[in-house]
């Protein structure tokens, strides 16, 4: 329990304006976010190339397996993050959860950086990253919010700083890609580990002085006996799962493809079950049930949008490395560098679309219509990518503009869908499931990644045109349906009541 002096100390910390008008602790969190963004973006951008690069440079996996593993990691990390939010809220507290998680992340990058690590180092790194997700969840965002009272006008500004810093970190693929190209993948992973370690070091150095007791204890702690039981069960579950899967893989009973398909199928059914639980719960009022049900079409749209996004970090990442002419002004740039484009486009297009809604005011489309339009734009991305496969032979190098335009289309779609989706989820959320409804919406990301993992089974060299055509048409169709029935869906969500 906090003493009066500690409470005053925390209040003084919250009133600080030393970091761009914000508390010093927010400065530390921002630096941690910068370091973590660099490490995460840098690792993710080159990981797929490391997986299918020939030994000893890489692991020598097939491109199909590499693409499946990338999608599988995306799906699992998002699902495990849900557990992480629970751990932070009820077991560790946001500060300890964040610190432990970031420390485990450093170890994961070190595993990838070991030249002799091989497949064991990769598996160890992925397990550690998933454990990190299970410890942390959204702790960084939650901890930043604890530095402000609900009425503090600086709160939105703090999250804006975090958003900008995250996108600065998104420039990491240019650096990690260049390092991998020049000195090898292990050196690039080592740089990621160093950046991640710098973030942890900054927190440890400033923790006592800048944070006080803010976020140290969990907000809704479990009783001591239940806490101990939960921790023991979680550790046992992790160890048993790793042991079982290791035996199955070593014995040849389980393959990468089968494992990916099983986990991905589960990832698809989890949000479905969650929707059923919320809608059928006696805690959910009749009108709330209707509103939640009307969110499902938008949720499906976002699942397909995230399917397209995961294409960009898997199959199209391979296309960029092998088929795109990456020599610009006589200098070869890394394929990973292209993954910086989404962050650049997100900042610019997000501002443009946001300004458009401000100008239109009450004349702007309803939220479901925005999601419909955005989803159609997402679908136009893979449809557009059928063209280079139709126009050029398998041995031809194509202009980088194909990838640039692809990213332009899908990020424009994101500018329409991403902010609106979370807003819709918060509007329809039943009173008894306010936070969990946001969690369900976020599951569209893991569901989309899982769908891509399954879709990769149908991807073969030479089948690119029908592959991207089907994905693009299904995504556009989902968006078109929501656009056509946008007013009816909005009414079902209770949005028209708010404007009348």
From TrEMBL:
<feature type="transmembrane region" description="Helical">
    <location>
        <begin position="437"/>
        <end position="459"/>
    </location>
</feature>
<dbReference type="InterPro" id="IPR005279">
    <property type="entry name" value="Dipep/tripep_permease"/>
</dbReference>
<feature type="transmembrane region" description="Helical">
    <location>
        <begin position="185"/>
        <end position="205"/>
    </location>
</feature>
<keyword id="KW-0812">Transmembrane</keyword>
<feature type="transmembrane region" description="Helical">
    <location>
        <begin position="465"/>
        <end position="486"/>
    </location>
</feature>
<feature type="transmembrane region" description="Helical">
    <location>
        <begin position="401"/>
        <end position="425"/>
    </location>
</feature>
<feature type="transmembrane region" description="Helical">
    <location>
        <begin position="339"/>
        <end position="360"/>
    </location>
</feature>
<protein>
    <submittedName>
        <fullName>MFS transporter</fullName>
    </submittedName>
</protein>
<dbReference type="GO" id="GO:0015833">
    <property type="term" value="P:peptide transport"/>
</dbReference>
<dbReference type="GO" id="GO:0005886">
    <property type="term" value="C:plasma membrane"/>
</dbReference>
<keyword id="KW-1003">Cell membrane</keyword>
<feature type="transmembrane region" description="Helical">
    <location>
        <begin position="235"/>
        <end position="256"/>
    </location>
</feature>
<feature type="transmembrane region" description="Helical">
    <location>
        <begin position="66"/>
        <end position="87"/>
    </location>
</feature>
<feature type="transmembrane region" description="Helical">
    <location>
        <begin position="107"/>
        <end position="136"/>
    </location>
</feature>
<feature type="transmembrane region" description="Helical">
    <location>
        <begin position="38"/>
        <end position="54"/>
    </location>
</feature>
<dbReference type="InterPro" id="IPR050171">
    <property type="entry name" value="MFS_Transporters"/>
</dbReference>
<feature type="transmembrane region" description="Helical">
    <location>
        <begin position="157"/>
        <end position="179"/>
    </location>
</feature>
<keyword id="KW-1133">Transmembrane helix</keyword>
<dbReference type="GO" id="GO:1904680">
    <property type="term" value="F:peptide transmembrane transporter activity"/>
</dbReference>
<dbReference type="Pfam" id="PF00854">
    <property type="entry name" value="PTR2"/>
</dbReference>
<keyword id="KW-0813">Transport</keyword>
<keyword id="KW-0472">Membrane</keyword>
<dbReference type="InterPro" id="IPR000109">
    <property type="entry name" value="POT_fam"/>
</dbReference>
<feature type="transmembrane region" description="Helical">
    <location>
        <begin position="262"/>
        <end position="280"/>
    </location>
</feature>
<dbReference type="InterPro" id="IPR036259">
    <property type="entry name" value="MFS_trans_sf"/>
</dbReference>
<feature type="transmembrane region" description="Helical">
    <location>
        <begin position="292"/>
        <end position="319"/>
    </location>
</feature>
<feature type="transmembrane region" description="Helical">
    <location>
        <begin position="372"/>
        <end position="395"/>
    </location>
</feature>
